[in-house]
Amino acid sequence: MSDTWLVAGLGNPGPGYSGNRHNVGQMVLDLLADRLRGRFTSSKAQAVTLEGRLGIGGPRVVLAKPLTYMNTTGGPVSTLARFHDVAPDHVIAVHDEIDIPFNTLKLKLGGGEGGHNGLRDISKALGTKDYYRVRVGVGRPPGRQDPADFVLKDFGTVEKKELPFLLDDAADAVEQLITEGLVAAQQRFHAAK
Is 69 annotated as belonging to a binding site? Predict the structure, then answer.
């Protein structure tokens, strides 16, 4: 296996979804693409991708935004992992997480999917749950609002003011996870708030 990392930003395709909480993973990847000074291009794996290195001579990364809907994210992720010879322990899924407060990050390796259909599909397609997750907190729905409806809404006015900082932290977390490992990234970002 190669030492390449595959970073998948989860979300739904199309401009109608671009500002949704469910698409925060893709927002993080847009920021990482800016940092790599690159542009996403189409791939045969039903995704747009960008290949680059973190820093001069740093680890090789493939950033991927699946063009499928969230529930069928596993196909593009597993296809890209096979194509780039990336083992599951070098796959990072960046996704929205309603079980942690807005403006909070949690990182983990493996574990359950917490009802997240995108993660469930990736686990099924990879044949393992042992891949990394950068969980971007979007908070719980207010009152009795259905969580599925909540994540398909755009961030609120107050949240939008904080969102650039959250995206920046999430991009930093991805980079630190790759360059320094899970424990270092957890120590920095789990204690941050």
Answer: yes
Give the structural domain span for 60: 5-189
Instruction: Determine how many CB atoms are found less than 10 A away from the CB of residue 48.
Output: 21
The domain spanning residue 16 has which CATH number? 3.40.50.1470
* pTM metric for this prediction: 0.96
**Catalytic residue set:** 22
Separation in Å, CA 38 to CA 30, 41, 48, 50, 164: 10, 9, 12, 7, 19
**Inter-residue contact 133 to 157 (CB < 8 Å):** no
- Annotation-wise, does 131 bind a ligand? no
Cα–Cα distance for residue pair 30/149, rounded to 1 Å: 24
Q: Do the annotations mark residue 103 as ligand-binding? A: no
Query: φ and ψ at 62, to 5 degrees?
Result: -120, 115
Q: Give the Å distances, CA to CA, from 80 to 23, 43, 118, 122, 175.
A: 20, 9, 16, 12, 20
Q: How many domains does the chain have?
A: 1
pLDDT tens digits, residue range 80-92? 999 999 999 999 9
Beta bridge partners of 7: 63, 92
Query: Which is more confidently placed, 2 or 43?
Result: 43
DSSP state of 20: B
